[in-house]
Write a structure and sequence with these properties.
There is one protein chain. The protein is mostly helical and 211 residues long. 74% of the residues lie in helices and 5% in strands. It has 8 helices and 4 strands. Strand 2 and strand 3 form a beta hairpin.
Length: 211
């Protein structure tokens, strides 16, 4: 039986590997699937995103089989009672990681050269190119950052439920898109508020349906 320290080290290594693999995969996908559609109608990248999601899920199912895999957790499962609510240590960790990730992302977008380039490219790629910005490089960097965040989210999701399987990201992805629409596309803080609102609606709705 591995010692707790070695088990924790193993999980941390898996998290780092997940981020690296996801970033590399997303970089390749951007080059192969999205860059040829750069000047296409906006509906084309959306359809491509759905197609790539289905393709990746199918490949994952073929490689790892369509069965649930146990995912190790680092924190104890004893519930914490706060003002009548129940929360687990893993969920507290998820909230902390989310807050730190949001703070870093907001700093990156609002106060760094790359963030200014990202905002300029999103506003008008042609004008940004005239100002010395390389839109292709900025878009690739954005895909890499998104992949790292998705890998972190996947690790947190698997840690919360203790399992991992090939289609585990599809429904959370739809919810994330809905939260982004709720909060306003491009508004990071609004996306978080939209996610909280969506979670409250889902929890209250399931509670009423359950009763």
């Amino acid at each position: 039986t591995p010692k707790p320290s070695s088990a924790a080290s193993d999980v941390y290594k898996r998290q780092v590997i997940a981020c690296v693999v996801a970033a590399t995969l997303n970089f390749v996908i951007e080059k192969v699937a999205y860059r040829p559609l750069r000047n296409s109608p906006k509906l084309a990248p959306l359809i491509t995103a759905i197609g790539m999601s289905i393709l990746l899920q199918t490949l994952a199912m073929i490689i790892w089989k369509p069965t649930n895999k146990a995912y190790p957790t680092l924190l104890p499962s004893d519930p914490i009672h706060i003002a009548g609510a129940v929360i687990s240590p893993t969920q507290v960790m998820i909230l902390g990681v989310t807050a730190v990730s949001l703070a870093i992302l907001m700093w990156l977008v609002n106060y760094t050269k790359l963030g200014r380039a990202m905002r300029a490219t999103a506003e008008n790629p042609r004008v940004a190119a005239l100002m010395g910005i390389r839109p292709d490089m900025v878009i690739s960097a954005t895909f890499i950052i998104g992949a790292v965040l998705a890998a972190i989210a996947g690790v947190m999701y698997a840690s919360n439920y203790g399992i991992a399987q090939h289609a585990m990201g599809f429904l959370p992805g739809l919810k994330a898109f809905t939260a982004a629409v709720f909060g306003g596309i491009g508004n990071l803080a609004g996306a978080v508020v939209g996610g909280l609102l969506l979670g409250l609606i889902e929890a209250i709705g399931s509670g009423y349906i359950g009763t």
